[in-house]
Amino acid sequence: QVRLVESGGGLVQSGGSLRLSCTASRSFFNVVGWYRQAPGKQRELVAIFSGDITEYRDSVLGRFTISRDNAKNTVYLQMNSLKPEDTAIYYCNMGGASGIWGQGTQVTVSS
Question: What is the pLDDT of residues 30-50, one digit of tens each?
Answer without folding.
Answer: 899 999 999 999 999 999 999
